[in-house]
Design brief:
Number of helices: 10
Strand content: 25-35%
Distance between the termini: 28 Å
Length: 280
């Protein structure tokens, strides 16, 4: 089974900055978002150098139980493993748009924001979630962050409480025909004919990991860099062989460090984590 350690190892062996040019022709990527998704999938599957799109998709099918769609999280799920959400920003300090899906510490099969196909693609109840965040400047990759949701986002109750409070407040207005939806809600029959309705949806954003974790990593604007942040217990759960391969790769431009990060649920509590760092 593929995992984050194999993906990071593949990046360290062959980092590609010109992602748009590399993926535009052989993979039929129409924009940078699609090119980035191809690249992240290839890092996990070890298919960065595979030019034949049919062979590439055959490998995807072997390792992924769900390949994602444009409108619902996640972007893909590893069969029997983690879920991955790919995001891009154009600067080290830019926020990440999550649209109507609030930040997640992990992905739940019961979530109303995922599709039926995602829910039924394999037998699962919850999965660890990886945010793969790419910093692009002039269509060139400057930095890549892999960060697990439980290092980055609070528990779902934090966001659900806000969402429910807003919906309850809207429903309390007199003379408003409010109905519940998967979003924040909908106001029906706004005009005298009763033919207009108003959708109310959240537009969630989250600060980039480069900004959130600037107390353990300082952005390097001069070089292509990659980082992965993983709770220590999760790191130790990966296959021993995968850990050994990665640990043997440590050199001047690649390191694995023990760090302590603020708990997303209680910043006064520090969590033991592993930080993988690579620069080229």
């Amino acid at each position: 089974m593929v995992n984050l350690l194999t993906a990071f190892s593949n990046f360290a062996k062959n980092p590609i900055a010109e992602i748009g040019d590399y993926y535009r022709s052989p993979n039929r990527a129409n924009n940078m978002g699609e090119a980035l998704e191809f690249y992240i999938k290839d890092l996990f599957c070890g298919t960065v150098g595979t030019k034949d799109i049919n062979k590439k998709h055959a490998v995807y099918s072997k390792y992924f139980s769900y390949a994602g769609n444009q409108n619902n999280p996640p972007d893909f799920m590893i069969r029997g493993g983690d879920a991955v959400e790919v995001k891009k920003v154009e600067s080290f300090t830019a926020g990440i748009a999550l649209n109507s899906s609030y930040p997640k510490d992990r992905l739940y099969a019961a979530s109303p924001m995922i599709t039926k196909d995602c829910r039924n693609c394999e037998k699962w109840k919850e999965k660890d979630l990886i945010y793969a965040v790419d910093v692009l400047k002039k269509k060139k990759l400057k930095a890549l962050w892999f960060v697990y949701g439980d290092c980055y986002a609070a528990g779902k109750d934090t966001y659900e409480r806000i969402k429910k409070s807003i919906s309850a407040g809207l429903a309390g207005f007199e003379g408003v025909g409010f109905s519940k939806t998967k979003e924040l809600g909908r106001v029906n029959k706004v005009d005298p004919l009763g033919i207009t309705y108003l959708r109310i949806r959240g537009m969630w954003h989250i600060a980039s990991p480069m900004k959130v974790f600037n107390y353990i990593v300082k952005p390097n604007n001069e070089k292509v860099s990659a980082y992965a942040l993983i709770l220590k217990a999760k790191y130790n759960s990966f296959p021993v062989q995968d850990r050994k391969v990665l640990e043997k790769m440590q050199q001047k431009n690649f390191s694995i460090s023990d760090v302590k990060i603020k708990s997303p649920n209680n910043p006064a509590k520090l969590l033991e984590a592993k930080l993988l760092s690579f620069t080229k």
